[in-house]
Amino acid sequence: MLELQHVHSFYGNIQALKGVSLTINEGEIISLIGANGAGKSTTLMSVCGIVKPRSGKITFQGQSVHHLPADQIVTLGISQVPEGRHIFPHLSVRENLDMGAFLRTDKDGIKRDLDYVFSLFPILEERSGQAGGNLSGGEQQMLAMSRALMARPKLLLLDEPSMGLAPLIITQIFDIIKKINKEQNTTIFLVEQNANQALQISDRGYVIENGKITLTQNAADLMQNPAVQKAYLGI
Amino acid sequence: MLRVFLWSGGMEYFIELFFSGLTRGSIYALIALGYTMVYGIIGLINFAHGEIYMIGAFTSYIIATVLSIYGFPVLAIVVLAGFAAAIWSSAYGFTIEKLAYRPLRHAPRLSPLISAIGMSIFLQNYVLLAQTSDFLAFPELIPDFDFMEPVAHIVGTTDLVIILTTAAAMFGLTLLIKFTRIGKAMRATSQDRTMAMLVGINVDRVISMTFIIGSALAAIGGILIASHIGQINFYIGFIAGIKAFTAAVLGGIGSIPGAVLGGFVLGLTESFATGYVSSDYEDVFAFGLLVLILLFKPSGLLGRADIQKV
Hints:
heterodimer; A: 235 residues; four-stranded antiparallel β-sheet; 10 helices; B: 310 residues; mainly alpha; ABC transporter involved in vitamin B12 uptake, BtuC; two-stranded antiparallel ribbon; 12 helices; 2 strands; globular
């Protein structure tokens, strides 16, 4: 469904990705794990067209997308929940959700998806009139995920969904990620430092170090891999 | 002290100054909106914005002169000249952003600022060379209404038209920003540009629209004030620009209600300072007020110091 081939991306003059290649098949949950600054977020930003790769190819459902502007990539069915959630602080919860459906015109479909995200996170319906900036961290993560779902993505990119959240909320968030994958048949590409939680719900995983993919295996095998255990699982 | 001032000219004098302050404030507010909207979206002080207003005044001058030669009725002249000025100024605003700011989008913040100052100087000199350095007598476009006769010594027809037009423009802008698609896209972009791109907003288009709307408002300000004062030259944009920029900062740069409030506060201050003290002290009071407000509220009257949650 999504394929990156030898993608090189830069932030200014700093090379963040040094030839990243990976493949995601329809219906999968894939984790990308790595340390701070390894290039995880840059990988997602390159897929979404926010960072333009200097070389390499990104294809989505057979169509090359690395030269497309960000808004057209959203139209094709890729949505991202960025690191730090990026809630519009002065828009209400409801307006934040509406922004997620910015490019859609099917009123009935939008209404259905709104009901769906409210069923996933009932707290958002209660707070729908509040400013997004006033929500707690966990609620903001729920809102950010719901906003991404409002675009009805085929591929959902999640950047550090567990960051800064209480363990109980993290479990809830990961359960919902699995649920979205099952119920909506949404393919999930998950970037995490919390490798343990991420791999537990994933089909396969990639390890990224210094802008390069160094390892890829089934999630279960990765969790047994001594090098991974030492570096990322704290075992 | 205030009571002494109030009685030094009587109630009627006070009301007269009040309306003259509202008139000035309206114009400042119309121009300040352009500064504050552009700042809100791309964080740039568009120093060429005053020149957009000046170009609006010149455009309406040219159109009004041509139309009056062909004997158009006054009302038609006002409306047509206003529209022409708004469209022409918008085209300038759009082009300036494309040529002078967009290529510097990812440059350090100082670069587009310098580019803006350069644009301002360029446009002043361009109008100076292409038109004239002299003051031009601007035709009196707004006739005195008969029903205004009894109060004409306190508030003139032009004042009333300026205040009402400004109110209408602001009402329209509020509706646009609150309810339309482009308005929502503008709010989202000003709050978080990366996220706006991620939900599929074409940020380049939003920025262009911001310049177009801001320029149209400045042009409306241009035609209104020119027909009020009765003369224009290539330099009027600089003075008005500095004052409107002051109004935007006073109200809290980036805040749309702030720009309107700042415009009126500044206009009223100037008007009362002129009326009760001396017109020589107009600017002293205006900028003194700016310093005073920023001392106590550094982000301006309605500006907000954003708190970011992680």
